[in-house]
Design goal:
heterotrimer, A mainly alpha (about 270), B mainly alpha (about 220), C alpha/beta (about 220), A: about 270 residues, mainly alpha, two-stranded antiparallel ribbon, 7 helices, 2 strands, elongated, C: about 220 residues, alpha/beta, Rossmann fold, about 30% strand
């Protein structure tokens, strides 16, 4: 991967990522138009009282929240797969991928939680709800991977944290069905079930915008992932170069130390 | 297999003997456990009835906090004079090391649980309605916590900043254990109408999974 | 037979190349003294030979096993005396040595072997039942050696074995090493105590800056 070939300064950009970035940017603009202008807010009329109700403009968060949720799970799944790959193959590529995926996934997860909370306030009248399965699971996933990232950063060099981090990622991902199950049993109050998605009429333009959102944010996340991977890769390269330099330095010390280097001679001490 | 069992007992016995001599559990962790119960009581400033209904949750939070200390201690014993080097050279299988240390932590947790049970009976006026459920829950949750704690303790220790890293690694993983154990205790202490035995099944599953994962993953950390 | 074969070995700890291209061959039954200034990599060399440090580059074989893939097989067969005691402070001297004997898989002979080791190191008697925390540094060093001796390893790796020992202690250690050598073990010692080690007529290798800069037989000349 010759990232540095075309530029005189070090950059993680390449023709591919620039095209991707432009596409993502264009996509985001298009999405904004669709989300804010072309689609309607959720306004429904009560059959008997004639009153208007519904989510109104809050429903537009749908186009950010749902894609981000999907991408969070995708990123974490990638992290788990790369962690497994690392434990099996032990090559740095898997490790750097896992780290990049975890970071991007955690960013996405944070967005999911925040947008979810903002969305929840006007719609469900609460910032947070304990006992909602999806909320709890997402929150725990977020915390589990915060731990993963903390572990990574605690290490002096990327290599030494690689194996423990891989284990943490795998346990975290495997823990999720268990968390799911336990929270489900726990309260059985799921706001998500009184679901926003089912009571809304997701059809035509709304559906299209939603899918567009998934695609566009998919592009954004991929762009982030690629860049983050390359940063990680460069970090590794820097460590190796640093070691080469350090080795040369150290051998320099060796040659300046005034030590007798005759071999195979017996000397009598006077 | 016999070797694993022998090594496991050797390591567990060693850890427990050290605990017996140094009395860290008795002198430091146990008082801390009671202190936590008292702090909750003070902070919540609630009437007896409320404390009683909170008791299961408070109990298990206290157990988790004590577990952090017990695990840290378990790890510190090996790092103090580099005994961990000797363990790596010994040829004992990582699974045996893991199970041995986890067993020792489990025993200590069980002792703390007994103490804390006494604590909530006295301080929060809890009453035990289903002894069997209580005991089995304590055991299953104890195994889960000890297993996860030993695994993550070793991980955090390997990187140096373990005191601050361990909680953030371990506690999220133990969230389902907390949920399950609290619910089971709700039933066993008559604090809420739930089916504690169903939760016990979940806990048992967690205990088995965490023990297996720990025994397998320990290799990755120790074999290096 | 070569007990240690290192070619161009680089060992990185964190980001620091403790060993920066080392070549060394040690044949079975040899006694080797490793000397050199502080920070030269002597301790890392011993730990590498014990299978505790992975070589980043180069070829490394100990007791015929490749250090990159067969490290855990090497570990069982060596004895390492490091800077730290490797003992449990709250257990007695005897309990420590017995534990390490059992840990080495000696099973039924563990206790007998432990008693033998305690005796050889002058640790039998009332001292054996004192907690390690309460005995002197020199006695702790001897206890660490006893824990190593019970393993009867083929390769002894000793990092400053005489450190902190009184005259009697040093004699005891020398006797122990001499016995091991006579029994055919290979011994690699890192020490600043040139006088003591000289008696073993070792081969002297000098380390500096993570590489070998000197290798001679016989008596050591003060650098």
């Amino acid at each position: 991967m010759d990232i540095m070939a075309t530029e005189s300064r070090i950059t993680t950009g390449s023709r591919g990522t620039r095209l991707l970035g432009l596409a993502a940017l264009a996509g985001v603009l298009a999405l904004l138009v669709f989300a804010f202008v072309l689609t309607d807010p959720d306004v429904r009329t009560h059959p008997t009282s004639g009153e208007e109700f519904g989510q109104f403009d809050a429903v537009r968060l749908l186009y950010l929240h749902v894609p981000m949720a999907i991408l969070t799970y995708a990123a974490y799944a990638l992290c788990a797969a790369a962690s497994a790959g690392y434990l099996l193959r032990r090559t740095p590529w898997w490790d750097v991928t896992a780290h990049a995926a975890a970071e991007v996934g955690t960013l996405a997860c944070a967005l999911v939680l925040v947008t979810g909370s903002i969305w929840g306030r006007p719609v469900w009248n609460t910032w947070w709800e304990w006992g909602d399965v999806r909320l709890m699971t997402t929150l725990l996933l977020f915390l589990l991977f915060l731990g993963y990232l903390a572990l990574r950063r605690a290490a002096v060099d990327p290599e030494s944290a690689a194996r423990p981090a891989a284990v943490v990622a795998l346990v975290a991902v495997l823990d999720i069905p268990l968390v799911n199950r336990s929270v489900e049993w726990w309260e059985n109050r799921t706001l998500h079930q009184k679901s926003t998605l089912t009571e809304l009429k997701i059809e035509d333009l709304t559906l299209f915008t939603l899918v567009l959102g998934i695609v566009v944010f998919g592009l954004v996340v991929t762009w982030l992932l690629l860049h983050r991977f390359r940063v990680g890769w460069l970090e590794r390269a820097e460590v190796t170069h640093g070691i080469d330099r350090a080795i040369a330095e150290r051998r320099g010390v060796a040659s300046t130390t005034g030590v007798d280097s005759t071999v195979g001679q017996t000397r009598e001490e006077s | 297999m016999r070797e694993v069992l022998a090594d496991l007992s050797l390591v567990a016995a060693k850890d427990l003997r050290i605990e017996f001599r140094s009395r860290v559990l008795a002198n430091q962790v146990a008082p801390f456990a009671l202190l936590v119960l008292v702090l909750f009581g003070v902070a919540l400033d609630a009437d007896q009835r409320t404390l009683r209904s909170f008791a299961p949750g408070l109990f298990w939070v206290a157990v988790l906090l004590c577990a952090l200390l017990a695990v840290q201690r378990s790890v510190a014993v090996e790092r103090a004079d580099d005994a961990v080097v000797g363990l790596r050279l010994s040829g004992m299988s990582p699974a045996a090391l893991f199970l041995g240390k986890a067993t020792a932590v489990l025993v200590q947790l069980l002792v703390l649980e007994v103490l804390l049970t006494g604590g909530i009976i006295v301080l929060y006026r809890s009453s035990v309605e289903d002894v069997a459920l209580l005991v089995l829950t304590g055991l299953a949750a104890g195994v889960a916590v000890a297993a996860a704690g030993t695994l993550y303790g070793a991980m955090a220790a390997g990187l140096g900043v373990s005191e601050t890293l361990l909680p953030i690694l371990l506690l999220p993983v133990l969230a389902p254990v907390l949920i399950g154990a609290t619910r089971a205790f709700d039933d066993a202490l008559g604090a809420a109408a739930v089916d504690g035995w169903a939760w016990l099944v979940l806990l048992a599953g967690l205990a088995v999974v965490l023990t297996l994962v720990g025994a397998l993953a320990y290799r990755v950390l120790v074999e290096d | 037979m070569s007990v240690v074969e290192l070619r161009g070995v680089v060992a990185v700890l964190g980001r620091f190349p403790a060993l920066a291209g080392l070549d060394l061959t040690v044949t079975a039954g040899e006694t080797v003294l490793v000397q050199g200034p502080n920070g030269a990599g002597k301790s890392t060399l011993l730990r590498l030979c014990a299978g505790l440090v992975v070589p980043t580059r180069g070829e490394a074989r100990v007791l015929g096993f490749d250090l990159v893939v067969e490290r855990h097989t090497v570990r069982r067969r060596v004895g390492l005396l490091g800077h730290a005691t490797g003992l449990y402070d709250d257990l007695t001297v005897a309990e420590n040595v017995t534990f390490w004997a059992r840990a080495a898989g000696l099973g039924r002979v563990a206790e007998a072997r432990a008693n033998w080791a305690l005796g050889r190191l002058g640790l039998d008697g009332p001292l054996a039942d004192h907690a390690v925390r309460t005995v002197s540094a020199g006695q702790r060093r001897r206890a660490s050696l006893a824990a190593l001796a019970v393993r009867r390893p083929d390769l002894w790796l000793l990092d400053e074995p005489h450190a902190g020992l009184d005259q009697e202690g040093r004699d005891v250690v020398d006797d122990l090493i001499g016995e091991a050598v006579a029994a055919g073990a290979t011994v690699i010692v890192s020490s600043h105590e040139l006088d003591r080690v000289r008696r073993l007529s070792p081969r002297v290798v000098t380390l500096a800056g993570g590489t070998l800069v000197g290798d001679r037989l016989g008596v050591v000349r003060d650098a």
